[in-house]
UniProtKB/TrEMBL annotation:
The keyword S-adenosyl-L-methionine does not apply. This is Spermatogenesis-associated protein 20. Pfam families: Thioredox_DsbH. May play a role in fertility regulation. Residues 52-62 have a biased composition (Polar residues). Residues 1-62 are annotated as: Disordered. Residues 23-36 have a biased composition (Basic and acidic residues). InterPro entries: 6-hairpin_glycosidase_sf, 6hp_glycosidase-like_sf, Ssp411, Ssp411-like_TRX, Thioredoxin-like_sf. GO terms for cellular component: extracellular region. Keywords: Developmental protein, Differentiation, Secreted, Spermatogenesis. Residues 65-226 form the Spermatogenesis-associated protein 20-like TRX domain.
Amino acid sequence: MSHLPSPPQKHKGEHKGHGLPRGSERGSSSRDKDRSVTVNSTVPMPVGGKGSRTSCSPSTLQKVPNRLINEKSPYLLQHAYNPVDWYPWGQEAFDKARKENKPIFLSVGYSTCHWCHMMEEESFQNEEIGRLLSEDFVSVKVDREERPDVDKVYMTFVQATSSGGGWPMNVWLTPNLQPFVGGTYFPPEDGLTRVGFHTVLLRIREQWKQNKTTLLENSQRVTTALLARSEISMGDRQVPPSAATMNSRCFQQLDEGYDEEYGGFAEAPKFPTPVILNFLFSYWLSHRLTQDGSRAQQMALHTLKMMANGGIRDHVGQGFHRYSTDRQWHIPHFEKMLYDQAQLAVAYTQAFQISGDEFYSDVAKGILQYVARNLSHRSGGFYSAEDADSPPERGMRPKEGAFYVWTVNEVQQLLPEPVLGATEPLTSGQLFMKHYGLTEAGNISPSQDPKGELQGQNVLTVRYSLELTAARFGLDVDAVRTLLNTGLEKLFQARKHRPKPHLDSKMLAAWNGLMVSGYAVTGAVLGLERLITCAINGAKFLKRHMFDVARGRLMRTCYAGPGGTVEHSNPPSWGFLEDYAFVVRGLLDLYEASQESSWLEWALRLQDTQDRLFWDSRGGGYFCSEAELGAGLPLRLKDDQDGAEPSANSVSAHNLLRLHGFTGHKDWMDKCVCLLTAFSERMRRVPVALPEMVRALSAHQQTLKQIVICGDPQAKDTKALLQCVHSIYIPNKVLILANGDPSSFLSRQLPFLSTLRRLEDRATAYVCENQACSMPITEPNELRKLLHQ
């Protein structure tokens, strides 16, 4: 499975506190740079070397399951047959540790993480390691996607005591849950420069016996320091920083890290990071007439085009892989995440709004086609991810990327037809291979495949424009397009016969909320009702399966059961801040796309619940978890980085502004100001770490537009005005349909709506800012002119 002798160790926090935000590193590709294993400790730990090599021969899987067999998480179930006395996170494990005075070994990962698979196979299946973990530690397994609060707290420790973090994350805790040693992936045995997991366990066991007092004192000291370091509060500040200053600094920092040739904002590995692209589009809109504004637009559009042409995009089945291991977006880490698809669908849709180039809208539609086919539950919900690894053939050991790569022989056999009209003898396969860069030797360099597992294999990446490929062979551009599309379809049908990557069928409220946004925004902009219907079905799924009506609370997770059923853990896993923030955003986007006010009403109720559970009334901003759920954890954090996913506080700032625009409730505007003020120091210090929050800061200081359409929702003239608004990139707005009913939900929230009238009984638009509305407009072209001002 591995292409390198050791995995990368960072990315989740590689740029926390400095530099550009990169996607949170959810597991590490086997083809990234070689980085040594990290062991982070609050006391000196001897490092294993040549003289202390320990042999830990792996064993076969035990036949009797451990207690993880009773869990729902796909990740925990992957460890249910380890010879380890695993516990899920919970009081039973903590009580055992205190009663027996043993340290807790906490191992955190997720089901589609390549290096989590490696450590499970190499170490957790090993009988001797299993005996040590069971006898001398209380071993706890956590799915980071089920318990992001646990993951964030201990990742903060690992990042603070080392140069980075990643998954699997392995941390040793006192019985009171305070960390004292942490690291990421450990090989089973010692190497010349790396300490093996078996050795680490023996030494920690010895330290616990001989130096427990010192361990506990140092652990308390580190925890106290982390508490001070992680505090985010308004302090003495009364107002947030200047949006103009933060915008300018954020843009300059992005400009300095931009890759002129291939797009993106780092050498390698390269992450999509849609929050950066969103910021650049917003920056362009407010600086359209300046050189920097044009530059921001070019940076975002070029990055999106290079990504879409690169191997990070699955040209055969659509959708995007997790990240690129090289600067060119060529060889990806093949894992596919729901939250990437959701955010990238919106980014490509916005690129279409701005540029008018259907290339971008086609990519967005392809992403959503992939999600509908591969990541959708029949009841409307969305699954979390597809793995990077799969067997090349049935019965073989899984390899990373096996499902997605191609040999020249495979393509030639699938596409043998001669191409008529070419200037030289040519088959469809030869045309296809030229356009997508396939070679006999394979297009994966040996440096990206040291073990030779992908020798002779190719990742499809667009090497030439359709025009250049057509000119090369003297063909018509439309004919080339048809030939390539036919070739892709044949490869798609052939790929159906390969063993599929593992599907993580867990469904998370937060990521489902992002996906509702993806379908709603794309459907509204492109005028595709079927996509809006998918968004509606996603929201219905959330309300039916992930919402406790009696308590008014979201659940974090549910799971695909047999026969298309939906299952829950018992007791239920309650939602975290990101679940509320992302679902509220999805519902606001869905209201604007569908004009069904019930979604807006639910968003308001969820925001009230979010405020009650997570708001910091003293310091401002939202905690990531509610106090009761995180009881016992040494830290209660506020997420302060926009990475692979936006920070829930950044999204909440936008939500509060939009909700104020929809309702006029001053409390939400006040909360938004407090939140932005609380994060002032973080934004001032490293604005590029919070591009989504800088966007919210700008929206607050520029004021949102309230675009009101008065008309019959089913009438053509109403739909024409609505579609006009959707077609234009206006990030700082709320779109309101006023149907003339004074008792309607929105009319009760915004009394001024009852004063707006249809002109000559035609659908009429008003653009309102700062409690003043424009003259009535009935023609879409006139509305377009006004909105473009």
